[in-house]
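Troubleshooting entry. Yesterday's outputs looked truncated, so today I'm pasting the complete records for two proteins to confirm everything comes through intact. If either block looks cut off, that's the bug. Protein one:
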Amino acid sequence: MNRHVAIATLNLLPLSVSDEFRAALAEWHFTGHVIDYPPKSGWVCCELCEQLHLSHNFEIANSQTNTSLLVDSSCILRFPEIVVRDRSGVAVTDAASRNACLREALQTRLKERALEPLQTALKKTPEHRPELERIVGAITECGRLDPKDILSLFDILRCAGIAFIPSDYTVNIRSAQATRQMLAMSESQRERIRPALSRDQFKRFAYLFRENDRVFSP
C-alpha cells in the first residue's frame, strides 16, 4: 500500500459505510463545488491525502453518511471510484473526461470570483454601470479583457476601495488592437495592469516596463 492510499484510507473509512477502501470510495461523488483560496493564503490541505499548499479544494460528498471532504483534484483523478458527473448528470469514467469536468468546475469558480468585485462595484459606483456591465459581459462570454478594459476596471475598483485580486483577470493581447492598446498606454498605466499579465505576456512586453531586467513574479 503506497503512502497516498494509506493516508486516504485512514481519512475516508471513518466517514464511509464500507470498511473496505475501494468500496468506500464508490460511495463518494464530486459535488461540483470548488473552494478557491487567494494567493499566499497559507496552510491549505487535501482532507483525503493531506497534501499541503493547495490553491483550490474540490468537495466530495457521501450521501449515505451525509459527510463531505475538501480534496485536491489529483485525488479525485487518482481514485476513479469517486463519481464525477458531467453537466447532464451522467457519470463519466474515462480519465480525460473526468479531468475535463474538474477543470470546467474550476474555471467556473474562478470566473465567479473575478465577477464578485464587479458586482460590488455595480452597487457602489452606479456612474460606471454601463462600462461595468460591458466588462461583466466580456468576462462571462470569453473570460478575457483587452488591456484598456483591464486598466479601466482596475482603476474603478481601486478608486472605490473595492478589494480584488489582479491575477484573477486575464489580459487578451492576441489581437493587433490589444497590442496597440498596450503600446499607447503610459508607463504608469502599464504598471497598474502589470499584476494581471502572465509570465509569457510580461516577457513579450518587458521592454515597456520599468526595471524590465528584473525577474518577473506574476
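Protein two, checking that the full record survives here as well:
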Amino acid sequence: MSEKETHLFINDNLDAAIFFGSKDENFKHLLKLTPAEISARGGEIFIRGKGTDVDEAEALINQVLDIVKSEKQLNPSDINYAQSLVKKGVTIKHKDVVSGTILTTSRGKAIKAKTLGQKKYVQAMEDNDIVFAIGPAGTGKTYLAVVMAVRA
C-alpha cells in the first residue's frame, strides 16, 4: 500500500479549543478511532498512513469539525456518531441535520433533531398519520413524539 499524507487547518481558535477538548480528551478519543497517524501543531492537523486510512481519517475530522462549527461543543459521543456516518459513507453536513427547530420551549430553548435518524423520524411524523418506531433506549423516540404532539 502506498503512503499518503495530508493536512487540515482549523482557523478559528475557539473551534480548535473545542475540537481538541480539555486536556486534549476529544483529540485522544479521535486518535483511538482511526489507524492513520494523526498529529497536530497549533491549528494544523497532519494525517499520515495508508491511502484509505488517511481518506477515512480526513473525512472523520471534517465531520467532527462540522459538528464543532454548528454546535460550538463536542463530546466523545459526537465523535463516535461522526465515525458511524463516515463508515456508512454518509456525506451530509451536520448543520443540515440540526437545521429547523421542531419546537421552542416556554423558556426559549430550541428543540431540534440531533442525528440523521432523528431527522428522518421527525420527517416521518410530519408526513404520516401513524409512525411506528423501534430502536435502542435513550435515542429520543418518546421525547420527539411528545414534542411533535405538543406542537400539533
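Both blocks look complete. Sanity check on protein two: The mean pLDDT is 90.
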